[in-house]
Amino acid sequence: MTEKKVRVRFAPSPTGGLHLGGVRTVLYNYLFAKQHGGDFILRIEDTDQSRYVPGAEEYIFETLKWCGLEPDESTQHGGSFGPYRQSERKESYRRYAEELVAKGVAYYAFDTAEELDAMRNRLRTAENPSPQYDRTVRTQMRNSLTLSKEEVESLLQQGTAHVVRIKMPEEETVSFTDMIRGEVSFDTSVVDDKVLLKADGMPTYHLAVVVDDFLMQITHAFRGEEWLPSAPVHVLLWRHLFGEDKMPLWAHLPLILGPSGKLSKRDGAKYGFPVFAMNWKDPKTGELTEGFRERGFLPEAFINMLAVLGWNDGTEQEVFTKDELVQKFSVERVHSGGAKFDFEKAKWFNHEWIKKLPATAYSQKVKSIFEEKGLAIQDDAYLEKILELVKDRCTLLPDFWEHSSFFFRAPKTIDFAPVMAKWNSDKKAFFTALGHPLRSVSDWKAATLEALFKNLAEGAGIKPGELQLPMRLMLVGGKFGPPVFDIAEILGKEETVNRIEAALEQLP
Ligand code: GLU
Predict the structure, then answer these.
(1) Domain span at 167
(2) What pTM value is reported for the model?
(3) Does some domain include residue 227?
(4) CA 327 to CA 371: how far, in whole Å?
(5) Distance 2 CA to ligand 1 centre (A)
């Protein structure tokens, strides 16, 4: 017997930007699929039209592209199980809802909004502040369980607005085996009769997710822990529509924790770190939520950090390429407890990845950061050489500005304070005389320059160490940067000599 092809899906509702937890869900689905030679499907769950936010769908695709986690099938990538947007599948759901009603496991409910409000007002108590439509309440409402068959038929014929609700069984235990948590059980008596099909003919998430996971032949699904309470409803729908044996294997991922409980969008603004993958501007309120991409994270670092937020390979290894993750990822090693997000650690990953990758991998991003600051880069090869030299000092991409903009612009002001106490006429004479021998160097390399500088310093009777800091200040304007002769090598002869000469004019 041939094994079923692994098919996983990420099924976001396009309601806003993607939280890092959402990207971790994508990542685990993706890794699992690729490890098993399977397919990764992106399905847009937009059946709740009232929550639809323009731009959110495009944002999701752009995020996945940036992260290098592109789906095999989606509204944009095509595939043979489409449409991949649930609102375009509207017609396919009603018959499943009818089938459930015919089987006696779901029912029509004709209650108006006023009737539902009246029910809630009537039953509200201190212990039960938001009464639900459940097994105790359904007997007091206007639905196909309480009305006569004739009444129901006539209401349907008249086109009376109605929903279809699941009839949750009483005192039954529903269980399934979660890939991360093992056996999980629920008492059906505490679950309400969720709406499956809405008055506008659209399915709710519960019905749509089950129908589409079936029709799209999904075999495994990683999703957030917040969906665990809905699982008993889904298990029952699978049981009645397609058979529980066809149900995908679920893995409910633990929450990501922030400094104070569940990591939220608000934590980002409060503690000053990004929570979304990319910047997201709410089209209604104009509110901007910062993204990792714009903060200067590399996608390699971002997914690496997310991979180990709740998983490890059992060794001390922390830095993983995407290919290594595909090989090493295992559901058995995903923790069931919440994973704490640590921004300092996230930055550490970025620093590691900046060092690990060749500067060519991110030079274009740095180039646009520089351009935003008004520095147009003409020569990419020159930029890459510089980035390579300073990358060990950078944690986030914007750090390259501080560590390398001086290569492109001579310092406007130089802070000579660190050398003034020991500045004297001998030193001034040394630098004044330095231009000539520098100009005669034919092999303009850091090592040659350093040897020459030492010789000249010794000849002048000054410790070379005492001359290096002034030289650095002359070239870069402050007490920072990579080794001074490396800087001179990159600046080139002309620029090095010019900077020294210009700086000397500012010194006594
Ligand atoms: N549409 C749900 C969401 O927005 C999908 C949950 C699931 O993966 O079943 O997260």
Answers:
(1) 87-253
(2) 0.93
(3) yes
(4) 39
(5) 30
